[in-house]
Amino acid sequence: MSTKLKLYLGRKVIESLHKTTKLSPLELQPLIQIGNTDKMELNLPMNLLETQLGVTNVTEILKIQPDDIIRKVQLVRDRANRKISFEIDQNIFMTDVIENGAYPDVNFKPKNVVVEYSSPNVAKPFHFGHLRSTIIGNFISNLNQFLRNKVTRLNYIGNWGTQYGFIQVGLEELGLQPEDIERDPLNSLYRSYVHANGLSEKNPDISKRAKGIFAKLEGGSKEELDRWRKMMGYSKAELVSTYKRLGIEFDEYHYESDYSAKDIAGIVDVLRTKNIIQKDEEGRMAAEIGNRRVAVLKSDGSGLYLTRDIAAAVDRFKRYDFDKMLYVVDNSQSDHFHALRNILYKMDLPWADRIAHVKFGRVKGMSSRKGNALFLRDILDECKGMVLKKQIESPTTKTPLNDERTADILGVSCVIVNDLKRRRQKDYDFDWDKVLQVQGDTGIKLQYAHCRLRNLELNCGAAPASRCQPALLLEPEALLLIKEMAKFHDVLYVASEQLEAYVLVKYLFDLCNHINKAFKTLRVKGTPDELASQRLLLFNTARKVLENGMIILGLTPLNKM
Ligand SMILES: NC(=[NH2+])NCCC[C@H](N)C(=O)O
């Protein structure tokens, strides 16, 4: 269902209120939802009318006269909720869904949204929390893009702190040359870090050396910085190519090292002047957040993770002038982002309430045969290997899958769907058997349905009609499928309000069930041309809704498997 009909209704409702509300039809329109009955109806829930419009008396709305589009207006009670139901002319409803339902609506108030996600640390494993951040952040970005907001996808790489002195020492001790690092950057940095740490357990000089190197780096030593930048370049190249396998591209890579001593000095000045930080008993400068003391400067005057985040937020607002900035980071950093927001408030930055921490739960039980140092690349290889091993059978050819690219995409699809199918705050256990189930609600199910529809389009010998003829699509399976497709935009609206993907995932599974039922009864092959082309048009829209939904989730829809 497109906005057109909803907008029409919105206008009618606002007119009926005789200018007693300041809301515009545009703002009202997202509140209008597809009804859950067999009828072609749109509903306006009373609780939303009350909370969003301040309207408690609906007598005037109920007086809206039926016309060619709105057939009947009445107040209905659905369990505890009351709604105003608008019955829509069936032909108009069907035509609107089939001809416009798969495409994004016009957005009259596009927002400028920055989404920071993934944000791994070089020299530390890319753990499952980073993978979840990558998947969820990509979904949120795709969704906003589909809703026609302006999106900046930002990856903020952790590459700063004393541990980076250890990497340098490790590199020296292992005798690794720039070429070695270039060949296998993330792994070399990680190995060096682990090596130096091991050495430091027996030899305290190692720690001293590491600290010395980091102090030089932080002090702005050109030689150290150049070396460090070079290594970051290699690491970024590896990250970019690995993200590509996931179908992910970032607009920006920022580094914690972008916000070192010089940059945070200005921030610290503001914090001091506004008396937001005071010296604590350990000599650190700390802010009071609730009943906690949170350090912003170490006793030696160097900055911390939080300090760099304050500087980064200020810098990002300057660069992007965002309406919203989302940090997609696991639950364990709640206190950190709470402190960040609190301090930005105290700094009297008017945009402090535009930042939000999008948190998510933990994953247990993801183990790799390669041991516990997991990198994104290893996780993806593991997915692909599992798909190939499982010999997932294709619905069309019934031959075991042995195409590597398809296996890669299928594996990734399964991991993404498995992650996005539940509320993001939930912890969950990772279980390969469940992730890759052929029967069941997995990425494979969505890919199957998509391939099936593509296959029909390409091989049935007919072409879809360009205009819908509702009279030819009156079978119950067709009507149910149309009603299901009509919900697409409602679902996207809820998903973006709650920043929850599971509503979309669940919807796509339901949609697939309706598609499969319609597929069985509404034959295309061997059907008279006119009917065949109408059915094909119906399936064509269904495929586009599914395809767009899958793309928003971050899947690459397959045409064949
Ligand atoms: N702006 C931020 N602090 N983003 C989150 C960064 C996550 C950090 N690199 C980590 O892995 O723990």
TrEMBL record:
Reactions it catalyzes: tRNA(Arg) + L-arginine + ATP = L-arginyl-tRNA(Arg) + AMP + diphosphate
Q: Does the keyword Nucleotide-binding apply?
A: yes
Gene Ontology CC, one term? mitochondrion
InterPro entries from the entry? Arg-tRNA-ligase, ArgRS_core, DALR_anticod-bd, Rossmann-like_a/b/a_fold, tRNAsynth_Ia_anticodon-bd
> EC number(s) in its UniProt entry?
6.1.1.19
Which Gene3D superfamilies did the record assign? HUPs (3.40.50.620), Isoleucyl-tRNA Synthetase, Domain 1 (1.10.730.10)
- Domain DALR anticodon binding, which positions? 446-561
Task: Identify the keywords attached in UniProt to this record, alphabetized.
Answer: Aminoacyl-tRNA synthetase, ATP-binding, Ligase, Nucleotide-binding, Protein biosynthesis
Q: Which Pfam families match?
A: DALR_1, tRNA-synt_1d
Q: Which domain of life is it from?
A: Eukaryota
Question: Example GO molecular function term?
Answer: ATP binding
The family note in this entry says: Belongs to the class-I aminoacyl-tRNA synthetase family.
What task does this protein carry out? Answer: Catalyzes the attachment of arginine to tRNA(Arg) in a two-step reaction: arginine is first activated by ATP to form Arg-AMP and then transferred to the acceptor end of tRNA(Arg).
Known NCBIfam families for this protein?
argS (TIGR00456)
Q: State the name under which the record lists this protein.
A: Probable arginine--tRNA ligase, mitochondrial
* Origin species: Phyllotreta striolata
